[in-house]
Amino acid sequence: MSFPWAKQYEPKNPVMQWVDSRLPLPRFVYNAVGAGYPVPRNLNYFWNFGILAGVALVVQIVTGIVLAMHFHSSAAGAFESVNVGMMRDVNAGWFLRFTHANGASMFLAVVYIHIFRGLYYGSYKAPREMVWLLGVLIFLLIMATAFMGYVLPWGQMSFWGAQVITGFFSAIPVVGEWIRVWLLGGYAPDDATLNRFFSLHYLLPFVIAGVIILHIWALHIPGSSNPTGVEVKGEQDTVPFHPYYTAKDGFGVGVFMIIFATLIFFFPDYLGHPDNYVVANPLSTPAHIVPEWYFWPFYAILRAFTADFIIPAKLWGVLAMFGSILLLFFLPWLDKSPVRSANFRPMYRIAFWVLVLDVLVLGYCGGSTATPGVVITSQITAAYYFAHFLIIVPIISRLETPKPLPNSITEAVLANKGGSRMTETAVSA
Amino acid sequence: MATLEDGVPPDQTVGPGGELLENPRRRDYLTYAAVSVAAVGAGVVVLPLVNSMNPSADVLAQSSTEIDLSAIEPGQAIKTSFRKQPLFVRNLTPAEIAEADKVPVSSLRDPQTLEQRTKEGKTNWLITLGVCTHLGCVPLGAGEGENRGPFGGYFCPCHGSAYDTAGRIRQGPAPTNLQVPEYEFTSDTVVVVG
Asked: Any binding details for the cofactor (chain A) (predicted)?
């Protein structure tokens, strides 16, 4: 669907006409990311991050497919194939490997900004709940894929990461241990584990790509949101996606690539962990096990539970960690405020920034050794994380008096340019 | 009873006034039967897929390990492996046994005595998996000079679980004692685990 004023695909080239009448794929692309998709005219740079996530996924799939050609998926050969084969023997292997490893960080970084963009501008609200739900699903799939990919180099962090993460499932009463052994294909991570993780790590990105298509499809039913949160009222509120936002996104992709290249060429191991350059040793745990930075907030929530209360602390930690993400599925119904954008919600805006700070502190705690001070800080920040979604947001949506909304996107745009008087005079004239 | 010979379609019957009535039962029966067969078929296909992810025969074949205890002095422990998992074998000193027996069992998170965790007449041989019951790290304490934690047994560096000289959880997040695998003594100095 689209707005009635959306441009129609009219191929002039006879070959394209022939294709379009038999398989309207060019028309589909034109309506999705071409001139056939009208978009609010006032999107800011935070609206770049969806496309950036898509670019990151493509980078990961392309480098991943090539790296898979050089990877030995066995406990005996994986570490050497990555750290010797790819890094020294394979032509440009070091580049592909570092691109893939840092690409995961870039992917998660833009996904986090994309999610917080959605939280700030209320993009999860009706009529875009389905876009949000699919987005949370994509986030879960990305996390699973990133975790399984991190296991493949079979270093110490890979191995112990696999051991700890699959250990979560042993917290489930009665069947937990059986599930853990089933997931690993043995009693500890080994060949069977490595091979199934490789298989799934190769599969899941394509599942993600599929859910992304649904995500964009669901988005295109109501059309994109915008920084005012006011719905499109007419043709003057929109511009065609191409060339306006292809150009704006193109600029964003350029900045993204500069940062990405800086990481790859100057700090390729900055986000990694030195212990992962030690081959997996099932008999020795590294002194400080820590996941990749993008899992730190969740790891902090996991470790925040230290006392048994009805059920064991271990099960609480696991439930809370998964709950912290599953909670996001309910957000569209927890926040009942009819106003979308935090720009017009003074109280929600404060709560949003406190949440950002809270997640950053959680991340810091998750990356640190679990000293008593860190544990207490993670307990407080973890509690606040849940309170934000379950208590603060629902209460704010009842109490808050939003600021007056602009009548239309166009009015807001012109007001920002100092053009509001012009419209007034235009009206009075 | 209407039959095909009467010219009545099989999913209909004749009402009291001679009119044709829908008879849903036959059609429903066919639907249920078809869907049931398909469901059983789908289940039968899923079963081998799921089961293939269980430990394979070669992994299960590693499930018994023979250990020679003769070189382990009292107070010493060794780290070996059983089913690719670390296994701790520890020769407890009389002082360590006394310390373990001294603890009131009811005060423990996972109440067990040292006797229940060892073989009769061999209470000095504590054989446990070296897998922390919290999230599966290898606790310290079996190797020479490693930190044995506040209770003199094992100490897990990942999240600070401390085990006592009977391998029982005393402090930290782990929910249960270190697991004691099935084993038996085949002679005074040889034990077969698994």
From this structure: Binds 2 heme groups non-covalently.
B158 contacts A187? CB cut-off 8 A: no
* Residue B55, H or E segment: none
Residue B136, chain A, CB below 8 Å: the answer is yes
Instruction: Supply A17's token pair.
Output: 């006409």
**C-alpha–C-alpha distance, residues A213 and A206, integer Å:** 11
**pLDDT for residue A370:** 77
Q: Pick one of 2.40.128, 3.30.70, 3.90.550, 1.10.287 as the CATH number of A290-403.
A: 1.10.287
Which among B136, B158, B173 is the nearest to A313, CB-wise? Answer: B173
Name chain A contacts of B85, Cβ cutoff 8 Å: 187-188, 282
Distance CA(A122)–CA(A120), nearest Å, equals 6
| Chain A hits for B109, Cβ within 8 Å | 308
pTM value?
A: 0.86
Q: Domain residues of chain A, as ranges?
A: 39-230+238-285, 290-403
- pLDDT tens for A144-201 read 999 999 999 999 999 999 998 888 888 888 898 899 999 999 988 999 999 999 999 9
* Fold entry, domain A39-230+238-285: Cytochrome Bc1 Complex; Chain C (1.20.810)
Specify the residue for token string 């034109």: A30
Residue whose pair of structure tokens reads 């112990």 in the numeric block: A160
- B141 touches A at CB < 8 Å: no
Interface test with B, best of A151, A177, A283, A375 (most B CBs within 10 A): A283
ipTM: 0.72
Mutate to test the interface with A, among B49, B63, B131, B135 (most CBs of A within 10 A): B135
* DSSP per-residue codes, A303-327: HT--S-BSB-HHHHHHHHHHHHHHG
Per-residue DSSP letters for B161-176? -EEETTS-EEESS--S
Spell out the residues 6+ positions from residue B136 whose beta carbon is closer than 8 angstroms to its own.
Answer: A163, A164, A166, A167, A170
